[in-house]
Amino acid sequence: MQQDNEWNEPFTPSAEDLAGVDAWFAEYDALAARGAVEEIADLAVFPLNLATDVPGGFGAVAQWDRAEFVRVMTEVMGGGTAGMEMKSVRTPRFLTPNLVLVETEATVTAEGRRQSMRYADLLVRTEGGWAFQTMVQGGWGHGWPPATRG
């Protein structure tokens, strides 16, 4: 829903706004369960921004085009996440009617091993609906150069 918003007034999402974000993640989760990486890529805006950290205590950033996203996520997701038990609590924070940061606290159990994680996505509203444009999660930066200022 397109709405005008004064710069100095915080945006308060409606139930419809929140339901739209929930529906987007339901679609994403269903695709992830099947390992449908190409279809997941259809839910993104490229170039996709990534922020993570590298061993040694520094942040790292990258931009991926669609081909890079598909290559990496195919390696990461393998045949999908259906064999994993995933529990996620998502907290959307609308910056404007068209920009929402979604913090996720997730617990994944696979092969008897349980791991908790926290990550965030920036979703942007497009003509085709919500799309993710930025992914932020620690621990992905092995082999990435540390970020530098300036």
From TrEMBL:
Source superkingdom: Bacteria
InterPro entries referenced in this protein's UniProt entry, alphabetically: NTF2-like_dom_sf
Designated name of the protein: SnoaL-like domain-containing protein
Lineage, broadest ranks: Bacteria, Bacillati, Actinomycetota, Actinomycetes, Streptosporangiales
